[in-house]
Prior knowledge:
heterodimer; A: 202 residues; B: 0% strand
Amino acid sequence: MTHLTIDQLLALRESGSEPGAAAAREHVAECGQCAAELDRLHQRVARLRALPRLAPARNLWPAVEARRAGERRVVHLRRAGIGVLAIAASLAGVAVVQSGDVEPPPPAVEGELAAVKESSRALERMLEVYGPEARVVDGRTAGMAQALEARIAEVDDELQATSLQQPEPARGEQALELWRERVGLLDALVDVHVTHASNVGL
Amino acid sequence: MDPYLVADTDAVLARARSGDAAALEALYRAFEAPVYNLARRICRTTEDAEDVLQETFFEVCRSIGRYRGDGSLWGWVRTIAASKALMRLRRNKYRDTDELDDQVMPNRREDTALRMDLEAALERLGETSRAVVWLHDVEGYTHEEIAGMMGKTVSFSKSQLARAHTRLRRWLGEEALA
Protein backbone atom coordinates (compact mmCIF):
# COMPACT_ATOMS: atom_id res chain seq x y z
CA MET A 1 0.00 0.00 0.00
CA THR A 2 1.31 3.48 -0.87
CA HIS A 3 1.14 5.81 2.10
CA LEU A 4 0.45 9.52 1.97
CA THR A 5 3.34 11.96 1.65
CA ILE A 6 3.89 14.83 4.10
CA ASP A 7 2.56 17.24 1.43
CA GLN A 8 -0.67 15.22 1.16
CA LEU A 9 -1.05 15.09 4.93
CA LEU A 10 -0.45 18.85 5.21
CA ALA A 11 -2.99 19.46 2.45
CA LEU A 12 -5.62 17.70 4.56
CA ARG A 13 -5.27 20.46 7.16
CA GLU A 14 -6.07 23.25 4.69
CA SER A 15 -9.56 24.65 4.86
CA GLY A 16 -10.21 24.58 1.10
CA SER A 17 -10.58 21.36 -0.84
CA GLU A 18 -7.13 20.70 -2.26
CA PRO A 19 -6.92 18.45 -5.37
CA GLY A 20 -6.94 14.84 -4.31
CA ALA A 21 -8.10 15.66 -0.78
CA ALA A 22 -11.15 13.39 -0.97
CA ALA A 23 -9.06 10.37 -2.00
CA ALA A 24 -6.49 11.17 0.69
CA ARG A 25 -9.23 11.33 3.35
CA GLU A 26 -10.56 7.97 2.23
CA HIS A 27 -7.05 6.55 2.49
CA VAL A 28 -6.55 7.94 6.01
CA ALA A 29 -9.87 6.41 7.07
CA GLU A 30 -8.60 2.99 5.99
CA CYS A 31 -4.88 3.21 6.80
CA GLY A 32 -3.89 3.13 10.46
CA GLN A 33 -0.32 4.22 9.73
CA CYS A 34 -1.36 7.36 7.84
CA ALA A 35 -4.04 8.14 10.43
CA ALA A 36 -1.35 7.98 13.14
CA GLU A 37 0.95 10.19 11.05
CA LEU A 38 -1.82 12.76 10.60
CA ASP A 39 -2.49 12.64 14.32
CA ARG A 40 1.22 13.24 15.06
CA LEU A 41 1.14 16.20 12.66
CA HIS A 42 -1.83 17.69 14.52
CA GLN A 43 -0.07 17.12 17.84
CA ARG A 44 3.15 18.72 16.60
CA VAL A 45 1.26 21.84 15.51
CA ALA A 46 -0.58 21.95 18.84
CA ARG A 47 2.77 21.75 20.65
CA LEU A 48 4.19 24.54 18.48
CA ARG A 49 1.22 26.70 19.46
CA ALA A 50 1.75 25.84 23.11
CA LEU A 51 5.44 26.87 23.17
CA PRO A 52 6.18 29.43 25.89
CA ARG A 53 5.62 33.01 24.85
CA LEU A 54 8.92 34.89 24.64
CA ALA A 55 8.93 38.43 26.01
CA PRO A 56 11.45 41.25 25.47
CA ALA A 57 14.00 41.55 28.26
CA ARG A 58 13.87 45.33 28.31
CA ASN A 59 11.43 48.14 27.77
CA LEU A 60 11.84 49.37 24.20
CA TRP A 61 9.07 51.96 24.23
CA PRO A 62 11.43 54.86 25.15
CA ALA A 63 13.54 54.08 22.07
CA VAL A 64 10.43 53.96 19.83
CA GLU A 65 9.11 57.19 21.33
CA ALA A 66 12.50 58.93 21.01
CA ARG A 67 12.73 57.91 17.38
CA ARG A 68 9.19 59.11 16.72
CA ALA A 69 9.91 62.41 18.47
CA GLY A 70 13.17 62.69 16.52
CA GLU A 71 11.33 62.29 13.22
CA ARG A 72 8.78 64.92 14.23
CA ARG A 73 11.61 67.31 15.13
CA VAL A 74 13.41 66.70 11.84
CA VAL A 75 10.20 67.62 9.99
CA HIS A 76 9.82 70.68 12.22
CA LEU A 77 13.48 71.55 11.70
CA ARG A 78 13.17 71.43 7.95
CA ARG A 79 10.04 73.56 8.03
CA ALA A 80 11.62 76.00 10.48
CA GLY A 81 14.80 76.12 8.42
CA ILE A 82 12.82 77.02 5.32
CA GLY A 83 10.91 79.61 7.37
CA VAL A 84 14.08 81.23 8.69
CA LEU A 85 15.60 81.40 5.23
CA ALA A 86 12.40 82.88 3.77
CA ILE A 87 12.19 85.54 6.49
CA ALA A 88 15.90 86.32 6.10
CA ALA A 89 15.44 86.71 2.35
CA SER A 90 12.40 88.96 2.70
CA LEU A 91 14.16 91.13 5.29
CA ALA A 92 17.20 91.39 3.03
CA GLY A 93 14.85 92.62 0.30
CA VAL A 94 13.36 95.21 2.63
CA ALA A 95 16.87 96.30 3.63
CA VAL A 96 17.83 96.81 -0.02
CA VAL A 97 14.70 98.87 -0.72
CA GLN A 98 15.16 100.95 2.41
CA SER A 99 18.94 101.13 2.25
CA GLY A 100 18.85 104.80 3.09
CA ASP A 101 16.90 104.22 6.33
CA VAL A 102 18.85 101.43 8.10
CA GLU A 103 22.48 100.80 8.66
CA PRO A 104 23.55 97.50 6.98
CA PRO A 105 25.58 94.95 8.98
CA PRO A 106 29.35 95.37 8.71
CA PRO A 107 30.79 93.50 5.70
CA ALA A 108 32.83 91.19 7.97
CA VAL A 109 29.69 90.06 9.84
CA GLU A 110 27.77 89.64 6.61
CA GLY A 111 30.53 87.50 5.10
CA GLU A 112 30.83 85.34 8.17
CA LEU A 113 27.05 84.95 8.36
CA ALA A 114 26.98 83.66 4.78
CA ALA A 115 29.76 81.19 5.56
CA VAL A 116 28.06 79.90 8.72
CA LYS A 117 24.75 79.50 6.88
CA GLU A 118 26.52 77.49 4.18
CA SER A 119 28.05 75.23 6.87
CA SER A 120 24.59 74.77 8.36
CA ARG A 121 23.16 73.79 4.96
CA ALA A 122 26.04 71.34 4.36
CA LEU A 123 25.42 69.63 7.73
CA GLU A 124 21.66 69.45 7.04
CA ARG A 125 22.45 67.78 3.73
CA MET A 126 24.72 65.27 5.50
CA LEU A 127 21.94 64.43 7.94
CA GLU A 128 19.47 64.06 5.11
CA VAL A 129 21.78 61.65 3.26
CA TYR A 130 22.38 59.67 6.46
CA GLY A 131 18.60 59.52 7.14
CA PRO A 132 18.63 59.02 10.95
CA GLU A 133 14.82 58.90 11.14
CA ALA A 134 14.77 55.67 9.16
CA ARG A 135 17.27 53.92 11.43
CA VAL A 136 16.99 51.93 14.62
CA VAL A 137 18.95 53.48 17.48
CA ASP A 138 19.58 52.55 21.09
CA GLY A 139 17.96 54.57 23.87
CA ARG A 140 21.12 56.53 24.76
CA THR A 141 21.78 57.68 21.18
CA ALA A 142 18.11 58.54 20.73
CA GLY A 143 18.13 60.58 23.94
CA MET A 144 21.23 62.56 22.92
CA ALA A 145 19.87 63.19 19.42
CA GLN A 146 16.53 64.24 20.88
CA ALA A 147 18.19 66.81 23.19
CA LEU A 148 20.25 68.27 20.33
CA GLU A 149 17.23 68.46 18.00
CA ALA A 150 15.19 70.17 20.72
CA ARG A 151 17.88 72.83 21.17
CA ILE A 152 18.17 73.32 17.38
CA ALA A 153 14.41 73.90 17.25
CA GLU A 154 14.79 76.54 20.01
CA VAL A 155 17.65 78.24 18.12
CA ASP A 156 15.48 78.34 15.00
CA ASP A 157 12.69 79.98 16.97
CA GLU A 158 15.17 82.55 18.32
CA LEU A 159 16.47 83.19 14.80
CA GLN A 160 12.96 83.90 13.59
CA ALA A 161 12.33 86.23 16.54
CA THR A 162 15.64 88.04 15.96
CA SER A 163 14.86 88.57 12.28
CA LEU A 164 11.53 90.14 13.13
CA GLN A 165 12.38 92.18 16.22
CA GLN A 166 15.98 93.39 16.11
CA PRO A 167 17.16 96.37 14.07
CA GLU A 168 20.27 96.13 11.91
CA PRO A 169 23.19 95.83 12.67
CA ALA A 170 22.34 94.30 16.08
CA ARG A 171 20.33 91.72 14.14
CA GLY A 172 23.38 90.68 12.12
CA GLU A 173 25.57 90.07 15.13
CA GLN A 174 22.93 88.26 17.15
CA ALA A 175 21.97 86.18 14.13
CA LEU A 176 25.61 85.29 13.61
CA GLU A 177 25.85 83.99 17.18
CA LEU A 178 22.69 81.93 16.75
CA TRP A 179 23.79 80.52 13.39
CA ARG A 180 27.13 79.55 14.94
CA GLU A 181 25.32 77.75 17.73
CA ARG A 182 23.09 76.05 15.17
CA VAL A 183 26.14 74.79 13.24
CA GLY A 184 27.73 73.52 16.47
CA LEU A 185 24.55 71.65 17.38
CA LEU A 186 24.13 70.17 13.90
CA ASP A 187 27.77 69.13 13.95
CA ALA A 188 27.21 67.35 17.28
CA LEU A 189 24.05 65.70 15.89
CA VAL A 190 25.95 64.34 12.88
CA ASP A 191 28.63 63.13 15.27
CA VAL A 192 26.10 61.32 17.49
CA HIS A 193 24.52 59.52 14.54
CA VAL A 194 27.75 58.66 12.75
CA THR A 195 29.39 57.45 15.97
CA HIS A 196 26.35 55.25 16.64
CA ALA A 197 26.52 53.90 13.08
CA SER A 198 30.23 53.09 13.32
CA ASN A 199 29.72 51.46 16.74
CA VAL A 200 27.20 49.04 15.30
CA GLY A 201 29.32 48.48 12.20
CA LEU A 202 27.03 50.10 9.62
CA MET B 1 -12.13 37.92 17.85
CA ASP B 2 -9.06 39.92 18.78
CA PRO B 3 -7.01 37.90 21.30
CA TYR B 4 -5.20 41.00 22.60
CA LEU B 5 -7.58 43.65 23.78
CA VAL B 6 -6.92 47.31 24.36
CA ALA B 7 -9.17 48.83 26.99
CA ASP B 8 -11.54 51.38 25.44
CA THR B 9 -10.12 50.65 21.97
CA ASP B 10 -12.05 53.30 20.02
CA ALA B 11 -11.02 56.14 22.33
CA VAL B 12 -7.40 54.98 22.43
CA LEU B 13 -7.32 54.69 18.64
CA ALA B 14 -8.78 58.17 18.18
CA ARG B 15 -6.14 59.63 20.50
CA ALA B 16 -3.36 57.59 18.90
CA ARG B 17 -4.37 58.88 15.45
CA SER B 18 -3.93 62.44 16.70
CA GLY B 19 -0.40 61.54 17.88
CA ASP B 20 -1.15 61.26 21.61
CA ALA B 21 1.96 59.63 23.12
CA ALA B 22 0.08 57.97 26.01
CA ALA B 23 -2.37 56.33 23.60
CA LEU B 24 0.46 55.11 21.36
CA GLU B 25 2.20 53.71 24.41
CA ALA B 26 -1.02 51.91 25.40
CA LEU B 27 -0.99 50.21 21.99
CA TYR B 28 2.65 49.29 22.48
CA ARG B 29 1.92 47.77 25.90
CA ALA B 30 -1.01 45.76 24.53
CA PHE B 31 0.93 44.21 21.63
CA GLU B 32 4.54 44.31 22.76
CA ALA B 33 4.67 40.66 23.92
CA PRO B 34 2.97 38.98 20.94
CA VAL B 35 4.95 41.08 18.46
CA TYR B 36 8.23 40.24 20.17
CA ASN B 37 7.28 36.56 20.34
CA LEU B 38 6.53 36.45 16.61
CA ALA B 39 9.75 38.33 15.82
CA ARG B 40 11.87 36.14 18.08
CA ARG B 41 10.43 32.93 16.62
CA ILE B 42 11.27 34.10 13.11
CA CYS B 43 14.59 35.90 13.71
CA ARG B 44 17.75 34.21 14.84
CA THR B 45 18.82 36.57 17.63
CA THR B 46 17.20 38.56 20.43
CA GLU B 47 18.84 41.71 19.01
CA ASP B 48 17.11 41.20 15.67
CA ALA B 49 13.81 40.53 17.43
CA GLU B 50 14.19 43.74 19.45
CA ASP B 51 14.91 45.70 16.27
CA VAL B 52 11.80 44.19 14.66
CA LEU B 53 9.77 45.18 17.72
CA GLN B 54 11.04 48.77 17.47
CA GLU B 55 10.54 48.92 13.69
CA THR B 56 7.02 47.52 14.04
CA PHE B 57 5.87 50.08 16.59
CA PHE B 58 7.60 52.94 14.82
CA GLU B 59 5.55 51.92 11.76
CA VAL B 60 2.39 51.54 13.88
CA CYS B 61 2.88 55.10 15.24
CA ARG B 62 3.40 56.44 11.72
CA SER B 63 0.55 54.56 10.06
CA ILE B 64 -2.13 54.32 12.74
CA GLY B 65 -4.14 56.90 10.80
CA ARG B 66 -4.44 54.42 7.96
CA TYR B 67 -5.96 51.68 10.14
CA ARG B 68 -9.69 51.90 9.46
CA GLY B 69 -10.86 49.04 11.65
CA ASP B 70 -11.68 46.71 8.75
CA GLY B 71 -9.97 43.75 10.44
CA SER B 72 -8.82 43.20 14.00
CA LEU B 73 -6.26 45.63 15.38
CA TRP B 74 -4.00 42.73 16.34
CA GLY B 75 -4.26 41.35 12.79
CA TRP B 76 -3.11 44.72 11.43
CA VAL B 77 -0.22 45.03 13.89
CA ARG B 78 0.77 41.41 13.34
CA THR B 79 1.00 41.84 9.57
CA ILE B 80 3.32 44.81 10.06
CA ALA B 81 5.43 42.74 12.49
CA ALA B 82 5.59 39.74 10.14
CA SER B 83 6.64 41.96 7.23
CA LYS B 84 9.35 43.61 9.33
CA ALA B 85 10.63 40.23 10.54
CA LEU B 86 10.77 38.84 7.00
CA MET B 87 12.47 42.04 5.83
CA ARG B 88 15.05 41.54 8.57
CA LEU B 89 15.70 37.97 7.34
CA ARG B 90 16.23 39.22 3.81
CA ARG B 91 18.49 42.03 5.02
CA ASN B 92 20.66 39.74 7.11
CA LYS B 93 20.89 37.14 4.35
CA TYR B 94 21.34 34.40 6.86
CA ARG B 95 22.83 31.20 5.58
CA ASP B 96 20.15 28.58 5.47
CA THR B 97 21.25 25.90 7.91
CA ASP B 98 18.92 23.36 6.29
CA GLU B 99 20.98 23.54 3.15
CA LEU B 100 24.15 23.31 5.19
CA ASP B 101 22.84 20.21 6.94
CA ASP B 102 22.00 18.58 3.65
CA GLN B 103 25.42 19.30 2.21
CA VAL B 104 27.57 18.42 5.18
CA MET B 105 25.55 15.63 6.76
CA PRO B 106 23.63 13.68 4.11
CA ASN B 107 23.02 10.85 6.59
CA ARG B 108 21.06 12.99 9.03
CA ARG B 109 18.41 10.24 9.07
CA GLU B 110 20.67 8.22 11.29
CA ASP B 111 20.61 10.70 14.14
CA THR B 112 17.09 10.01 15.32
CA ALA B 113 18.71 8.87 18.54
CA LEU B 114 19.58 12.50 19.15
CA ARG B 115 16.08 13.49 20.07
CA MET B 116 15.57 17.18 20.50
CA ASP B 117 12.85 19.05 22.21
CA LEU B 118 10.55 21.05 19.97
CA GLU B 119 12.10 24.39 20.93
CA ALA B 120 15.59 23.24 19.89
CA ALA B 121 14.30 21.62 16.72
CA LEU B 122 12.45 24.78 15.72
CA GLU B 123 15.57 26.81 16.38
CA ARG B 124 17.57 24.47 14.19
CA LEU B 125 15.33 24.89 11.13
CA GLY B 126 16.54 27.16 8.36
CA GLU B 127 15.35 30.77 8.47
CA THR B 128 12.80 30.47 5.68
CA SER B 129 11.37 27.13 6.78
CA ARG B 130 11.04 28.34 10.35
CA ALA B 131 9.33 31.55 9.27
CA VAL B 132 6.85 29.62 7.12
CA VAL B 133 6.05 27.01 9.78
CA TRP B 134 5.53 29.72 12.41
CA LEU B 135 3.41 31.99 10.22
CA HIS B 136 1.29 29.11 8.90
CA ASP B 137 0.93 26.74 11.84
CA VAL B 138 0.98 29.14 14.77
CA GLU B 139 -0.10 32.55 13.48
CA GLY B 140 -2.62 31.06 11.07
CA TYR B 141 -1.60 32.77 7.83
CA THR B 142 -2.57 31.00 4.60
CA HIS B 143 0.00 29.97 2.01
CA GLU B 144 -1.33 32.72 -0.25
CA GLU B 145 -0.71 35.34 2.45
CA ILE B 146 2.75 34.00 3.27
CA ALA B 147 3.69 33.92 -0.41
CA GLY B 148 2.53 37.53 -0.73
CA MET B 149 4.59 38.68 2.27
CA MET B 150 7.69 36.80 1.12
CA GLY B 151 7.38 37.76 -2.52
CA LYS B 152 7.38 34.05 -3.45
CA THR B 153 4.90 31.59 -4.91
CA VAL B 154 2.25 29.58 -3.06
CA SER B 155 4.12 26.40 -4.07
CA PHE B 156 7.25 27.78 -2.44
CA SER B 157 5.39 28.32 0.84
CA LYS B 158 3.88 24.83 0.71
CA SER B 159 7.19 23.16 -0.04
CA GLN B 160 8.93 25.06 2.78
CA LEU B 161 6.21 23.91 5.21
CA ALA B 162 6.56 20.30 4.08
CA ARG B 163 10.32 20.55 4.38
CA ALA B 164 10.04 21.98 7.89
CA HIS B 165 7.67 19.21 9.05
CA THR B 166 9.83 16.48 7.53
CA ARG B 167 12.78 17.78 9.52
CA LEU B 168 10.85 18.39 12.74
CA ARG B 169 9.42 14.87 12.57
CA ARG B 170 12.89 13.42 12.16
CA TRP B 171 14.60 15.55 14.81
CA LEU B 172 11.84 14.94 17.33
CA GLY B 173 12.33 11.19 16.89
CA GLU B 174 8.84 10.65 15.51
CA GLU B 175 10.11 8.58 12.59
CA ALA B 176 10.86 5.80 15.03
CA LEU B 177 7.18 5.73 15.97
CA ALA B 178 6.00 5.23 12.38
